[in-house]
Amino acid sequence: MEVVKSYSVYLNTREANYGDSNNCTFLFTTPLVLTNTNNRFRISTPMVELPYSFSQLNLNNQILPYSWYSATNGTYTSSITFPEGNYNITQLIQAIIDLLVADILLLGTSTGITSSNFNITYSSTTGKTSFQLTGLAYTATILLNLNTVGFVIGTMFGFIQNTQVAFGTYTTGVPVTVYNLLTSPNKVMVNPITSVFIRSESLKFESNYEAVVRNIVGSGFNFQNSDIVCKIPVNTLPNSIIYTRSDQKAIISNKEIGELNLYVSDNLSPTFSLDLQGLNYGIYFLFEEVTMPQLNQYKDKLPNVLEIPRDLLEERKRLIDDLKMQKDELEKEIEQKKSLV
Fold first, then answer.
1. Are residues 88 and 177 in the same domain?
2. Residue 293 half-sphere exposure, CB side, CA atoms within 13 Å?
3. Each residue of 127-176: pLDDT tens digit?
4. In a domain? residue 310
5. How far apart are the C-alpha atoms of 70 and 322, rounded to whole Å?
6. CA separation, residue 125 to residues 96, 160, 205, 331 (Å)
7. Under 8 Å CB-to-CB from 3, ≥6 apart: which residues?
8. Which H helix or E strand runs over 245?
9. Which of 57, 61, 65, 66 is nearest to 87 (CA)?
10. In terms of domains, do 78 and 168 share one?
C-alpha cells in the first residue's frame, strides 16, 4: 500500500467538545476526507499519555456476594461492597474482615462475631491466601460467591473465576461442602486491571476483532467486531503517568472523519467505561490515506519462469544460424535457376 497523504492529529481530552475524559467527542474544524474513494484511511497511535488515576476496585467490580450458614443463627444471603480504590493484599484482607463482621452482625447480636474470629492470612512464600473461622461457640460457614461481579475480588484473593468457595467450622448437613481451612489455588492478583483500551464508536474498523472463540454449539467461529483504537499496558504504579508507544496500524472504512469519539475501558469488562477520576489524557493519532491493491493485480502476468541454462541458449542460437544459412543458400539457387530460363 502506498501512502498518498498523512495527517498528524494531537488530541487532549480536556479540549473535547462533548463529554469528559472517560467518554468524549471531538469535532474537527476541517474534516479529514479521502482524495479518492477507492483509497482507505490507515490509523495508528504512536504516542499516548494516560494517567493511572483509575481504581482497581471500582463501581463495576466492588461487590462480593456471600452466604452465611449456621444452625444457631440460620441462613443468610447478602453481599458486601468494598470501598472504591487500590489495595495491597494486607489492606484487602483487613477490608474483607471488617465488611463481613459488620454485615453479619446485622443478623443480630446473637452471632457474637468479631474480627478476631477471622483468621485470613497471606503467605509471601507461596503468594496465596488462607481463610479460616475460629473461636466461635457454634458451627458456622461462609460461602463466597465468585460468579458474575464477584469474580474480580476472587481473583484478587487468588481464587478461580466463576466459582463458589466456603470456609468455616465443619458441620455435617450444611448445604455446601466446607473446610476448616480454605487456601486459594492461585497466587493473589491485587491489580487485575492489567491494560486499558481506548475505543471509538466513530471509526469503522474493517478487520479488528476481539474475543475470537470457537463456537462450541454451532459451526464456524464467533467474531466480535472490535472498536479498539489502542491497548495500553499498565506497567507503572497508581498516581503516575502511563506512557506507551505503538506502531500497530489498522484500516478503517470511513470515507470522511469529521468527529471522533473516544472512551476508555479495561481488560475486565469491554462495556464498562473506566473512570479516570476527572484527569485528562493525551493521544497522538496518525491518519494515513493509502491506496488499496486491486483484487486482480498481477493476475495477467506469467509466474516467475525458471532461468534457462546457458548451454541451451547457445544451442538455440547455433540452430537458428544454421537455418538462416540454409535459407540464404536456397534463395541463391532459386535466383540462379530463374536466370537460366
1. yes
2. 6
3. 999 999 988 888 888 999 998 789 999 999 999 988 899 898 755 555 54
4. no
5. 111
6. 22, 20, 46, 103
7. 42, 288, 289, 290
8. strand 241-245
9. 57
10. yes
